[in-house]
Amino acid sequence: MANYRILSWNVNGIRAVQRKGNLDELLRLGEDILCFQETKAQPDQLDSALLAPDGYHAYYSSAERKGYSGVSLFSKREPVSLQYGLGIDRFDLEGRTIIADYGDFLLLNHYYPNGKASDERLRYKMDFYDACLEFTNNLVAQGRNVVVCGDVNTAHHPIDLARPEANETVSGFLPIEREWITKFLANGYIDTFRLIHPDEPDQYTWWSLQTGARARNVGWRIDYFFVNEALKHAVKDAWIMMDFMGSDHCPIGIELEV
After folding, report:
1. Dihedral angle sign, alpha carbons of residues 96, 46, 59, 33
2. Mean per-residue pLDDT for 181-206?
């Protein structure tokens, strides 16, 4: 048996959380794998502490546009192989995916688009969703187990945000976005947090900085870990680190025994 403790966190700027000391705080926890989204950095903008963090191998997929998007993976175990992106330029130019092969499973770290800016960006978000589903289904069809994590930018059910009625026409809780998560799960994937905590309310991963929502816990659960059905038995725990500061999101985690 191998045990994996994995965290996922939208850092809203990896250099910013480093400056504030929150990254060092997270590294001190000693988890096996750390998945970051919205890193907002190119490798040539990073110092040695971010390029070679003590005890970890570090990998980055950066957006072509500086200071935007991007994902990163810090891993104690060196993956068997890595893939940067889905192989689709319109998504990969925004640095939205890293895929790491750990033998026991493939880890897909995604920063899913935000659809609030315009109808065009909402369409881009939905296209990315569909591309991710097709890509992941192909991996499972090849006999691979998968762990999919990241900032999905959508709350699934009313329990997953503090004010569902007020946000029914807001991207992040639109019917079309919520229906995609339902479709994703129907394809044989498990929302690990709801597997362990099926009915627990007031559990959120993002709060608006502009309104000071975090102090009142007026939040949204938009960050997820999913596994395929065959890996469901391996999920021993899933949690949200709501008290961990440094970003407008908080880290989430799972423990796998495979």
Report:
1. negative
2. 98
In 38-98, alpha helices (H)? 48-51, 89-92
Give which of 179, 178, 133 is closest to 160, Cα–Cα. Answer: 178
User: Which of 117-135 are b and which e, b meaning 16 or more Cβ less than 10 Å from the residue's Cβ?
Assistant: eeeeebebbbebbebbbeb
- Per DSSP, the three-state class of 161 is strand
Distance in angstroms (rounded) separating the CA atoms of residues 69 and 38? 4
Three-class SS state of 156: coil
Domain with 199, as residue range(s), is 3-257
Q: Which CATH number goes with the domain that contains 83?
A: 3.60.10.10
pLDDT, residue 143, reads 98
Based on the structure, what is the number of domains in the chain? 1
37 vs 51: CA distance, rounded Å: 16
pLDDT of residue 3: 97
pLDDT in tens, 138-185: 999 999 999 999 999 999 999 999 999 999 999 999 999 999 999 999
Nearest to 13 by CA among 58, 56, 55, 50: 50
- What's 254's DSSP letter? E
Active site residue 119: no
Q: Considering 32, 151, 191, 223, which one is annotated as catalytic?
A: 151
pLDDT reported for residue 162: 98
Q: β-strand 146-151 against 106-111: which pairing, if any?
A: parallel
Cβ contacts of 139 within 8 Å, gap of 6 or more: 106, 146
Q: Which residue reads 């989204």 in tokens?
A: 37
